[in-house]
């Protein structure tokens, strides 16, 4: 039987520069916002907001600290081991590899007069190595990191100054890698600026009377910068495709009470308003009401609306890990027995019909099909699942093997639902599983939460040999790609 996945479908995996590269102070690279996030042991962590937050005092302390445990400074040493890692991806049969470029590796301070040639040359080598193995790079221009100096000087994306600096950075990439990179994304999970302003936009909110004002203003600057990057990409490389990227978590009503249904609808709308701007070119009406109710007044310059309207993305990429439920009366739901569910930079009420991962993320493969159908019906442009995966503690057996059947089951069920969505008429370009090789966690900066098909021998303290070990899922995914998504059984 022919595969339901189209012939052009791109199978692969995804990582981010700040979570794998390491070499944080090598070859002229500047310090990034990811490099100042210290590891906090689980027993010392507070809320996720506290963990992801940043103050100016903590920032300056981290910049001066050269001895502390800052895992993203070391990553998994992809900077030196990229050939070995790419060879492993090629062994699995990857058609595409999603990676990001470190902004401070190209412009160490963000506003330098000229780009850092050593940084540009590194990505030339990476792209050449991918091409040698027949793997298309899918490149995110800004993935949860920026030059830390832009935070110190401008408070990150809270300042309009970053629009021009980002566009110059993007132009540098488009010109340098024309013919080497066909697929671009502007910002990773752009909507997470609302949940984690420092992580998503390098914005410090301490002392702000209305943090929402700062976050929405930063988002507007990112929207304008993204649209201008789309414009310049098309002017500099007419063959390339450029898209946007959303963190998409499906939210169900906890009950069929009309107010629960309305609450879920509103939360799903908020999850998608960023792509309304980037795909449709306009702010949706519901966000304007949200601004009014929360005292937000976004400043726009003359011409901003035209910039957004005239430079729409070619495709919509998104991450999908889990679903949660919501209620208009969450306290009452909890008193009635509702549990809590964790999630990707957010949480919600648990769905009693779903299982959860070790980190409390609910596993909902059918939800991926729901999201694909809803988003395609809403936007009618090609979609790309660029993050999906299961974080888990992997154990090495006595014989040296890693039998991660739980990960195989997770992926198999989600890929199956992607196939169903394609049968439903969704235009889906590809799939890149998150953390195809073990990497440092974005939110907790730990290594023990592993996503990869490839095990990396390193712990939360940075100890280990960095040896790469193929997990059972490595051989399973190789078979999935070879069968073009038809054979999802155990190897």
UniProtKB/TrEMBL annotation:
GO biological process, one term: carbohydrate catabolic process
Active site positions: 387
Keywords noted in UniProt: Glycosidase, Hydrolase
Membrane-crossing segments per the record: none
Organism whose genome encodes this protein: Paenibacillus oralis
Highest taxon of source: Bacteria
Protein name per Swiss-Prot or TrEMBL: Amygdalase
Molecular-function GO terms, alphabetical: beta-glucosidase activity
Keyword Zinc: no
């Amino acid at each position: 039987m022919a595969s339901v996945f189209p012939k052009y479908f791109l199978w692969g995996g995804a990582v981010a520069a700040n979570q794998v590269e390491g070499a944080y102070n090598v070859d002229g690279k500047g310090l990034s916002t990811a490099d100042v996030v210290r590891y906090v042991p689980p027993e010392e962590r507070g809320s996720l907001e506290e963990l992801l937050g940043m103050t100016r005092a903590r920032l300056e302390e981290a910049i001066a600290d050269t001895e502390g445990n800052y895992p993203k400074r070391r990553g998994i040493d992809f900077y030196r081991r990229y050939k070995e890692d790419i060879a492993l991806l090629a062994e699995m049969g990857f058609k595409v590899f999603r990676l990001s470029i470190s902004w401070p590796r190209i412009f160490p301070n963000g506003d330098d007069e000229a780009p850092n040639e050593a940084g540009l040359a590194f990505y030339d080598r990476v792209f050449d190595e991918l091409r040698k193995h027949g793997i298309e790079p899918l490149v995110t221009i800004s993935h949860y990191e920026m030059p830390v100096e832009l935070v110190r000087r401008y408070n990150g994306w809270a300042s309009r100054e970053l629009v021009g600096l980002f566009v110059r950075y993007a132009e540098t990439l488009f010109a340098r890698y024309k013919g080497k990179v066909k697929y671009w994304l502007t910002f990773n999970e752009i909507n997470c600026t609302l949940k984690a302003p420092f992580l998503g936009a390098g914005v410090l909110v301490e002392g702000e009377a209305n943090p929402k004002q700062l976050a929405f203003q930063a988002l507007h600057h990112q929207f304008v910068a993204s649209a201008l990057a789309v414009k310049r990409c098309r002017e500099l490389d007419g063959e390339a495709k450029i898209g946007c990227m959303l963190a998409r978590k499906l939210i169900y009503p906890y009950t069929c009470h009309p107010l629960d249904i309305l609450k879920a609808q509103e939360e799903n709308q908020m999850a998608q308003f960023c792509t309304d701007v980037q795909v449709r070119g306009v702010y949706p009406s519901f966000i304007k009401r949200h601004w009014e109710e929360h005292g937000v007044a976004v400043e726009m310059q003359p011409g901003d609306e035209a910039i957004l309207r005239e430079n729409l993305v070619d495709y919509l990429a998104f991450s999908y890990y889990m679903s949660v439920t919501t209620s208009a009366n969450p306290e009452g739901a909890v008193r009635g027995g509702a549990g809590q569910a964790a999630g990707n930079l957010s949480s919600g009420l648990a769905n009693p019909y779903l299982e959860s991962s070790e980190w409390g993320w609910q596993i909902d493969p059918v939800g991926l099909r729901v999201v694909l159908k809803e988003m395609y019906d809403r936007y009618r442009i090609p979609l790309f699942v660029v993050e999906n995966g299961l974080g888990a503690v992997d154990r090495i057996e006595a014989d040296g093997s890693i039998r991660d059947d739980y990960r195989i089951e997770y992926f198999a069920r989600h890929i199956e639902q992607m196939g169903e969505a394609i049968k439903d008429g969704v235009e889906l370009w590809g799939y890149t599983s998150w953390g195809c090789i073990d990497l440092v966690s974005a939110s907790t900066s730990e290594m023990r939460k592993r996503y990869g098909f490839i095990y990396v021998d390193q712990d939360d303290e940075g100890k280990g040999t960095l040896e790469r070990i193929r997990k059972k899922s490595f051989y399973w995914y190789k078979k999935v790609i070879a069968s073009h998504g038809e054979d999802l059984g155990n190897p």
